[in-house]
Amino acid sequence: MPNAHLDKKEIVRQIKNSSGKEIDELLTYVIKEKLRQEKDTAKLYKFFTYIYENLYHDIIFKGIHIDEYIETALETLAMPIYESDTVDNILKIL
User: How many domains does one find in the chain?
Assistant: First the structure.
């Protein structure tokens, strides 16, 4: 698992070098930890947008499989605006 700092570049590198369930486990861990550590929605948006944009091509064209609920959570967190209870709902499903 990534260190507590959750460096977004390192996370993307680790995901691209992982396979199968490792990817789901890593993304679940990262999403939960980042949502627990950071409360500033602008910083959350920047963080998750970076991860989503750097994985998008691999998910769509290279067939990196991510469970649907994790992909939905990542897509939602990469949006600039979401409902105030979105973070709580995502943490419930993960």
Answer: 1
